[in-house]
Amino acid sequence: MALTNQNTALMKEITLKKGKEESILRHHPWVFSGAIAHLPSGLEEGDLTVVKGADGRVLGIGHYQIGSIAVRILEFNTDRLPDDFFHRRLDAAFRLRRTLGLIRPDNDCFRLVHGEGDFLPGLVIDIYGDTAVIQAHSPGMHFERRRIADALIAIPDARIRNVYYKSETTLPYKANLDPENEYLVGGYDGNIATENGLQFNIDWLRGQKTGFFVDQRENRALLEKFAKGRKVLNMFCYTGGFSVYAMRGGAESVVSVDSSAKAAALTDANIELNFPGDPRHRTCAVDAFKFLNDMPDKEYDLIILDPPAFAKHRSALKNGLIGYRKLNTKAFEKIKSGGVLFTFSCSQVVTREAFRLAVFSAAAKSGRKVRILHQLTQPADHPIDISHPEGEYLKGLVLYVE
């Protein structure tokens, strides 16, 4: 349903069960299916719908979809959206990133929209130079993709020329939307972006997510400060972000490991882009656990563990935590005395406390003395709506191992 063609008289309304409006009154943006007393006939996935309490009070307006999360609220305490809704929200998001100091000559890649954290639930937008990469996580945002693209191009001072839509793997499969990855505006004109003065090849056409994990930017910069003179092992390296920073930080040597040969090749390309002909780096396209099991003890004194999400859903939480314990135990057993371990979880369903417990259990099992130097999280361009704590997903620890 187009925002410019809203008709509040015809818009379908969802009524909540008595007592189920409390979280919405606190501005939590999700309406769960179990809270709904009445679904109107003819309501389709992606439609804008007005949410009302049992007493008839208007609570907000949002996108409807089939599933546990039935409505993602876009605006509270209203039954309509302004025609320039996306222009307003995207302009506000851009101004925040400018305030954060992320838009400068030595840095042109950042997250512009982080879903609920930017009051646009179901939408993620990353910027790489003059290209915006959109991911929709809800049918409603999928249907609004062209309006979103138009609003991106119109942001004052953003200088966005290309908009690529990449949602084939992020939309609910039950919605039967059959999305295509495609350019909505412009086209391919180079894929090198700059982060803190370092250059990276960004593969938004074939890479994971939007092509590059900008959420580790500050954590990579921190690692650079620890790298001087150390032998560095970057596990699950993907495109080699941590490896490139370690090289600039003066590492004695850097080994990058990923099970994907394509990722290993892209890591090599990024190393060559920044440090042409430098012999300190090598890649290994091999399973991470096999590499850790086979490598000699005490060879590395700086190890990065940044695995993909071990638990993407609550049903996988138990096995995911076992995976984190197993991985960190092996790293504790292998790292040199006086070594530093950067370890992360990007699983949203794994809480900060559960991750810490998994790592602490691994430390106890290894028998090593371990101290926390830093507790890490996602950067400021991945903001967390204070009413939506589920938006915190990245957890990390920097540990000193004796």
Number of domains: 3
Query: What's the total count of β strands?
Result: 20
> What is the mean predicted local confidence, pLDDT?
94
Low-confidence stretches are: none
Strand order of the largest sheet: 16-15-14-17-18-20-19
> Main beta sheet, described?
7 strands, mixed
Q: Note the run of SSEs as H and E.
A: EHEEEEEHEEEHHEEEEHEHEHEHEHEHEE
Proper CATH architecture of the largest domain? 3-Layer(aba) Sandwich
- Broad structural category: alpha/beta
Number of helices: 10
End-to-end separation = 60 Å
How much helicity do the residues have? 25-40%
Shape: globular
| Percentage of residues in DSSP E strands | 25-35%
* CATH hierarchy class name of the largest domain: Alpha Beta
CATH overall fold name of the largest domain? Rossmann fold
Radius of gyration: 23 Å
The CATH superfamily of the largest domain bears the name Vaccinia Virus protein VP39
Itemize the secondary structure elements and their pairings.
Blueprint: E1 13-16, H1 22-25, E2 30-32, E3 36-38, E4 48-52, E5 58-64, E6 69-76, H2 85-99, E7 109-114, E8 123-128, E9 131-136, H3 139-143, H4 145-153, E10 162-165, E11 182-185, E12 192-195, E13 198-201, H5 217-226, E14 231-235, H6 241-248, E15 253-258, H7 261-274, E16 281-285, H8 288-294, E17 302-305, H9 317-334, E18 339-345, H10 352-366, E19 370-376, E20 395-401
Parallel strand pairs: 1-4, 9-10, 14-15, 14-17, 15-16, 17-18
Antiparallel strand pairs: 1-3, 2-6, 4-5, 5-6, 7-8, 8-9, 10-11, 12-13, 18-20, 19-20
